[in-house]
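Form 7-S
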Amino acid sequence: EVQLVESGGGLVQAGGSLRLSCTASGFTDDYSIGWFRQPPGKGLEWMGAIAYSGSTYYSPSLKSRTSISRDTSKNQFTLQLSSVTPEDTAVYYCARWAGWDAGYDYWGQGTQVTVSS
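Output:
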């Protein structure tokens, strides 16, 4: 069974950094993983992705503050976002990229991050 589980959410002080993990199971490591977020009352925003090759891709609006990495030994993917503000308050999700036909086919349950000012 394919599963993606995010962890690391919670309360973060403005100006600090957040670090989230996505632990994947039920599939091999030849998939890319994307990170998304959904602020309250707003739509889903793609933040970036890490390909199975290890290449990373970031949303231009977040590129300067975002870092995505992976630990293949643990099948774990990490999102770091620096210099956070209350506007970064959102539910953060990881998802598996299954190609242009299927898109992101499996999603984690999401983890809430609240940035306090």
